[in-house]
Amino acid sequence: MDAIKNRRFFEGREDGKYLSFDSKAADGDEYFHVGRMVAMSIVHGGPGPRCFSENFYHYLVGKVKTIEAPIADVPDPDLRNVLLEIKNATTLEELLELNDKHASMLQTAGCYRCLRTLEDKEQVVNDYIQWYFTYRNHVSFQSSNRQEEERVLGYWLDYLIAVKEEASGLSLQDVLMFATGLKEIPAAKLTPQPQLTFQKKLKVS
């Protein structure tokens, strides 16, 4: 766990880290393997990484849908200073100048827009932080999700094979009845077709 928190796919303060994107780590499924190591440690009574920021942890376990981090959590000092400049603008004219000055940075995050009031600065800052900590790292989150879904599909296929071979005391007809309420597939086929869906949101008590 001590080694994990210093890996290249985490960034931020020692006790307030967020996920970062690293293409080499994504290609090697390192995000998935680190997640599995953390889970195994916790399941067996060991420690967690103990380095995640509270905001990132709540997002990771599905307690919140967005990461609402303070500007101070942005690790890049240049980006942090720009966001502070925008947040501390005192007039609409000053805000518009900053919006144009940093147009390239804001456009990259999809935050460059027509500003009509001074209060719009709050939305610009919040949207950029949301992009920086969440959408910018979308591939990192998807890497772990894809691996987990493939594992679940493997278990599901193993279960169906066991049922087909009558090794479980059930039949495929029982599975069909449970899933659809039908004992056999109708001549007109099923509409819509049954499908597996993956629930991403976790309930946290």
The count of DSSP E runs of length 2 or more, i.e. the number of strands, is 2
Distance between the termini: 24 Å
Mean pLDDT comes to: 83
Computed CA radius of gyration, to the nearest angstrom: 23 Å
Largest sheet: 2 strands, antiparallel
Q: List the domain count as a whole number.
A: 3
Strand % is under 5%
Order of helices and strands: EEHHHHHHHHH
* Spans where pLDDT lies below 50 across 5 or more residues: none
Provide the helix percentage. Answer: 40-55%
Question: What would the principal axes of the Cα set say about the shape?
Answer: elongated
Structural class: mainly alpha
Total DSSP helices: 9
Strand order of the largest sheet: 1-2
Short description:
With 205 residues, the chain is mainly alpha-helical.
Your description of this structure?
The structure is a single chain. The protein is elongated and about 75 Å long. A two-stranded antiparallel sheet has the order 1-2. It contains 9 helices and 2 strands, in the order ββααααααααα. The chain is mainly alpha-helical. 50% of the residues lie in helices and 4% in strands. The model has no long low-confidence stretch (mean pLDDT 83). Helix 2 crosses helix 8. It starts with 9 loop residues before the first strand and ends in a 25-residue tail after the last helix. The protein folds into 3 domains: 66 residues, no CATH class; 63 residues, no CATH class; 36 residues, no CATH class.
